[in-house]
Amino acid sequence: MVSPAQASPLPHPPLPPHNKAAAGVASPRLAEIEGAGTMTTREYWRAVGAKHGVSEDAVFRGMQAYEEARAMISSSGHMSQFGRSLIWTFQLKGIFPESVCTSYVAARHRLPLHSAPNLLPDVSAINRLGIDRCNRWLVCPLDARSNNAIGQRVVVVADPDIDQYPTARAQIGMLFGVAVEYRIASVDAITKALMLAQRGDTPQFSPSATSAAGATGAVQRAVASSSIAQSEEITRETVERDFEKAFNAGASDIHVESTESGLRVRWRVDGRLMEARRITGEAQRAAYLAQVKLSSSRDANGLDSQTETGRASGMDSNQYIRGEDATSVRLWGGRRVSLRYSGSPSGHKYSITIRLNDQTRILGMRLSHLGYRLSVEKALIAAFADATGLNAILGTTGSGKSTTLYCGLKEMDLESMKVITVEDPIETLFSDGLDQREVTPNMPFNEMLRQILRQDPDVVVPAEIRDAESLMLSIRAAQSGHGVFTTLHTDTPHDAIRRILDSAAGIEPGALAPALGLFCAQRLLRRVCVHCRVPHPNAAEMWEKHAALAHLHETDFRALLAVSGNPIPEGAPLKPAIYASRKTEGGGMCPFCHGRGEIGRIVCTESFRFDDPDKIRIQREGTAYDPVAARADAIREGRLCTMREDAILKALAGIITPEEAIAETKAQTVFFVPNQA
After folding, report:
1. In sequence order, which residues have a C-beta less than 8 Å from that of residue 112 and are 6 or more positions away?
2. Counting Cβ atoms within 10 Å, is residue 26 exposed (0-12), middle (13-18) or buried (19+)?
3. Which of 250, 256, 603, 637, by CA, is between 20 and 30 Å from 243?
4. Whether the predicted pLDDT of 499 surpasses 80
5. pLDDT number for residue 311
């Protein structure tokens, strides 16, 4: 038996393979790993850690993180295709230096290391394999001009122990049909190369670029700028490819912005803008805008509408897309995506914003998928099922109000109820159950709302309250016994009441109050990436400060812990799971979040149902109603959980970072924690 002190990080470590194809067995649990072989995996890596100044505790945390990730992957349907190995976890968590991890993988699988400091991807081969699959497999074909192998293709791989590596090798073999040399490279290097390929930027090779320094410069230049050369022809396919890339990257909006020298194209991903392309030259600017205009008239089959067919691409782009007057549909990867165009003249000619709406995803979602606390989810389901009074989803633009509204409508008995929506435009088209009406120039919003109130609806859904008149019509509909569900641009439920009182001057507070139902304010917060998150350094301090809040909302907190992959057995004492995001600085790049440390968003809410005490207060105070005082009283009485408290609960449960919770709810001036000064 080899002692831990004699263990080396390179020759034949005793890690049992978790790959089903390699081992013929399922992934071992941590207890099985620790008992396998003549020398346990923990002992081996403890010895490696001692050699490199890594504590035993850090090694064990890495092994725990690996098992947690594997458990989460197996329990999440949308993540089931991803594999994960122990060594990958060590690298992403920064427990062992990148050089140790890659050397280990190379020795374990007897594959050479790729020595170049940067990878030069073969964009064509990556596109043929599929960028998503390359990211999933952590493989990257290299450009033939960068390889020192004659008659061979070189493919770098991060770790053959991931689940889908055999599938990757089979697909690569079918693609190339020639001998393939596999080499080992780090997760960080492969991810950066794939990001470069995804952006559509092919490094320019020259005799000077074949050296390591030249290759580094080529990669840096390609990453720094994704310009379209003035000589490059801009076609419909150029624009469509950009749009589909944005959708695959998870963008909610595309911003095509005119600049002094051309155009800048940016995507909004998880609420943050990122530059995707820069176009220089007047001719290129006009051509790109023209193609965006023509794109706005395409149907789901990629065909031009009759009204747009034959329009010259050289038409003055200042005449394109004024206001929100264009919507088109795409079928991307079997998903129906609507593109909503809004354009206007700008200081530098013209700019366009395109809103991407994945209709297939929304049609498949329910309220339980959006991340509400359990108590809020139940309150929303009850409000939609009851379908009485005036109910509103509150928040700023892009806070998910329409998605919540669509998901809530699915909780109604649509077979026995007449539900009519008024939308401008229809964002998601239901196959049946809803009577969806779209605003037209001949039938404006308020006129259509008046019309449908004469058509015997049970529930009226004005998609958005835009002015005092639409607000008055909605209130009167609620007073007359209709269920009304709408959206408002306010920050809190009590602020919404103040706005209603200010706008609905013709309605007495005594008549308004009985019609009020559930008001739910929300915004979207960025989720910490579960694949590369690390324990928060101030976790103990934060738990000591906010433990009372978790105990006050114990049922909600236990449910949130289960969502984050850190469930607590029933009856066991509460404990936090607080994480920090791991950015790219100083470590490998996570292939799931691409180094952002965050991926996806979750809803954060302040939900309040106006019951009898609140209605009496509104009737008594009338136009003197003070929303700040009313909200403070509701908090003190334990009837309201603020948006900041909701965010902190999600941070304590490991869904978002504490920094995200505080930064995104800083406008919340009233914050109450019981038994705490």
Report:
1. 106, 181, 183, 184
2. exposed
3. 603
4. yes
5. 34
Domains of the chain: 4-108 (no CATH), 111-224 (3.30.300.160), 227-361 (3.30.450.90), 367-664 (3.40.50.300)
Residue 485's DSSP bridge partners are 391
Q: Which backbone phi and psi does 308 adopt, to 5 degrees?
A: -100, -15
| Cα angle, residue 670 at apex, residues 664 and 675 outer, rounded to 5° | 110
Q: SS3 for 349?
A: strand
Tokens for 126?
A: 């990556």
Name the pTM for this structure. 0.69
**Which is nearest to 63 in space by CA: 22, 19, 15?**
15
What's the rounded Cα separation, in Å, for the pair 169 and 127? 16
Determine contact, residues 655/664, Cβ cutoff 8 Å: no
- pLDDT value of position 40: 61
With beta carbons less than 8 A apart as the criterion, state whether 445 and 525 touch: no
Give the C-alpha separation, 77 to 665, whole Å: 31
Closest CA to 563 of 30, 76, 79: 76
Instruction: Calculate ∠ Cα 528-66-649, nearest 5°.
Output: 35
Q: Are 456 and 470 contacting, i.e. CB atoms less than 8 angstroms apart? A: no
Q: What is the pLDDT of residue 207?
A: 31
- Lookup result for tokens 């700023």: 396
Q: What is the C-alpha separation between 82 and 70, in angstroms, rounded?
A: 9
Closest C-alpha to 414, from 438, 426, 392, 432: 432
The SS3 of residue 492 is coil
Q: What percent of the chain has pLDDT over 70?
A: 78
Cβ atoms 392, 519 nearer than 8 A: yes
Q: Which two tokens stand for residue 524?
A: 């979207």
Question: Residue 285 in contact with residue 263, Cβ under 8 Å?
Answer: yes
Give strand pairing partners of 535. 579
Asked if 293 and 321 count as a contact pair (C-beta separation under 8 A), the reply is yes
Provide the b/e sequence for 484-496 (b: ≥16 CB within 10 Å). Answer: bbbbbebbbbbbb
Return the closest-CA partner of residue 279 out of 349, 182, 378: 349
What's the gap between Cα 609 and its chain centre? 29
The rounded distance, in Å, linking the Cα atoms of 524 and 268 is: 13
List own/partner pairs for 139-147 with CB under 8 A and 24 or more apart.
Answer: 139/168, 139/172, 139/190, 140/185, 140/190, 140/193, 140/194, 140/197, 141/172, 141/176, 142/114, 143/203, 143/205, 145/120, 145/205, 145/210, 146/116, 146/120, 146/205, 146/210, 146/215
Q: How far apart are CA 294 and CA 310, in angstroms?
A: 10
